[in-house]
Amino acid sequence: MGRQHWKKIWVGSAGNMVEWFDWFVYATFAVYFADSFFPKGNETANLMNTMGIFAVGFFMRPVGGWLLGRVGDRKGRKAALTMTVTLMSASAILIAIAPTYEVAGYGGVAVLLVARLLQGLSVGGEYAASATYLTEASAPSKRGFASSFQYVSMTAGQLVGLGLQIILQRNMSEAALHSWGWRIPFVIGALGAAIVFYLRRNMLETEVYEGSGAARDEDRGTLKALWAHRREAFLVIALTMGGTVAYYTYTTYLTKFLAKSAGMEKSTASLVSFCALFVFMCLQPLAGALSDRIGRRPLLIGFAVGSTFLTVPIMTMLKHAGSFWPAFGLALLALVVVTGYTSINACVKAELFPTGIRALGVAFPYAIANALFGGTAEYVALWFKEAGVESGFYWYVAGCAAVSLVVYVTMRETRDIDLNRVSAPTPPLPVTGAQPQTPVLDRRSG
């Protein structure tokens, strides 16, 4: 890829990293501030309440997906990406200054709720805008590789959050972290968002969008236009279901699971997650590049088969891992399986839609799937734990993956679809793995 391709990928990825840092540190530091906003008592119940607010943010993601997806299709990918980081900066500041229960009663919960609603709006648009931008900004034969940097940057944001947590754990007392130390990452997130705002104001629009003529289409970015591609929209929901549940299980929930269920020290649990996620991040471009050679479906099918049959034994053994190395090995195995989904899901979804509806087509159905499955994953896990049947959650994750497996097996391959199509409807989805009768790129020309 040329210098301009790499520049676009860098700017898009840097902003995405800060966005997801702000999104994930809420879940990462929830174990420290959960008791600050609710009456003292049942620690698990307070954590469930805090994660319930975390889940509420997911239910704003469809609204953000619709609103900012529309902006992305009508005003350009750059405009949408600039708006998302503005909303995220505001939400980080609100959480950083939120009053505790002792100071304002449930007023602090109200501030948290507003902040999570803003974060939901922001991330609802960020995923689709960055997925579309990275896919369109890459060389045609490198779309899988380039779009994999979305999860590289997402994971980098989570790693920075975990790394900051480890540093604070080693340099602050437990009491200080519970009292005020948990506010530090949100202050850092707000400052990072301000820097990204400047970068995105000066970023380049994608050539696919500028040269497509999509900006002249009156129906661009509307629900009417999306309805014309409703089959693809429902496909996005179905193929996201298993991947998002597995992803949030082995990323945001893993640290709490190791601490609360496996009985590990919080610092050890954080270190396990950090090391496993670092390797996971490095695997994304490799898997993305592999999909450019062999196609998207083999990786998706590999993820779904592995997640369906390995989730229950992996989670069962993680609960009894006992120390760092067994837990790290099991967590890494799980994340290697999840890589089959995370490395390419952005480009697969972007490849399903024409240019004039691509941002909204990715954003809205993906946000719905995340609200229903990704955002509730931790709450469902804690509900099973509270009910005394924690293993039920393992089967829930495996079942979601099994549903997505059916979708992956029956969907068409998307690797060679031409991104430059503007508004022509895509062909019906076959029930076999046959290639669609869609104009394709000459892969020899790159």
TrEMBL record:
Residues 426-446 are annotated as: Disordered. Keywords: Cell membrane, Membrane, Symport, Transmembrane, Transmembrane helix, Transport. SUPFAM superfamilies: MFS general substrate transporter. InterPro entries: H+-coupled_symporters, MFS, MFS_dom, MFS_trans_sf, Sugar_transporter_CS. Residues 8-415 form the Major facilitator superfamily (MFS) profile domain. Belongs to the major facilitator superfamily. Metabolite:H+ Symporter (MHS) family (TC 2.A.1.6) family. This is MFS transporter. It comes from Streptomyces maoxianensis. The lineage of its organism: Bacteria, Bacillati, Actinomycetota, Actinomycetes, Kitasatosporales.
